[in-house]
Design brief:
Helix content is 18%, strand content 24%. It is built from five helices and twelve strands. The strands form two sheets. It has a six-stranded mixed beta sheet with strand order 4-3-2-1-11-12, covered by helices on one side. It has a six-stranded mixed beta sheet with strand order 5-6-7-8-10-9, covered by helices on one side. Helix 5 links the parallel strand 7 and strand 8. The radius of gyration is 15 Å and the shape is globular. The N and C termini lie far apart (32 Å).
Length: 212
């Protein structure tokens, strides 16, 4: 059995979009593992319905909550055998370790509905992140694929410090819609703000598949 995962399908921030889900299901045929970096629902609504089509995937999916759903809500909705929800913990899938941290970090201005985590709490929950894993976070590391429409870097310092410390093979994030579909490198680690369209990523080459 092959233990090296080749292609991952990365996505985030689908916010109940049926057309985005349909496209991702189609793209998933070319991937070994699907990775969702949060915000499946919208303002804590529509989560179960949005995830429903993913139940029929014949490959594993690794997910973290966004700020639009909590970790407990996501665990409850993603209750099928091939689904792995990671939030402050790790899972090994096909020989590859994924560590996850969901939620909005730092705390967003969106108010009570938003599932947010302070930088201090995020740093605490990231303590056990292993070196060389695939790190899946909803929020980007500060200064990388995190530029808001107002021109400010609004990513997480705790996540940035973790990337520097643990040198993940790949960082998958979302949250900042203005940077959806973009990727940059932090130290040696590629950081992909996946976005709703989906990006096929080859874990061995460290590059997007069919990158034009």
């Amino acid at each position: 059995e092959r233990t090296t995962v080749m292609n991952l399908l990365l996505f985030s921030d689908i916010h109940c979009s049926g057309s985005a889900v349909a496209r991702l299901i189609d793209l998933s045929r070319r991937a070994d593992i699907v990775v969702g970096a949060g915000d499946f629902g919208t303002m804590r609504r529509g989560l179960r319905e949005t995830l429903q089509p993913f139940r029929n995937l014949d490959r594993p999916i690794v997910m973290v909550p966004g700020n639009a759903e909590s970790d407990s809500e996501l665990r409850e909705a993603a209750d099928w055998a091939g689904a792995h929800v990671v939030h402050g913990d790790a899972v090994a899938v096909a020989g590859t370790t994924f560590f996850g941290l969901g939620g909005g970090v730092p705390v967003t201005p969106f108010g009570a509905w938003s599932f947010d985590i302070s930088e201090d709490d995020a740093a605490q929950q990231l303590t056990d992140c292993p070196s060389g894993c695939v790190l899946v976070t909803h929020s980007p590391p500060h200064g990388v694929v995190d530029l808001s429409s107002g021109g400010k870097h609004i990513g997480s310092t705790a996540i940035r410090e973790t990337v520097t410390r643990c040198q993940p093979r790949l960082v998958v994030c979302g949250h900042i819609h203005d940077c959806a579909g973009q990727w940059e490198t932090l130290d040696e680690s590629p950081v992909v703000n996946a976005g709703p369209h989906g990006i096929l990523w080859n874990l061995e080459t460290g590059q997007p598949v069919n990158d034009k």
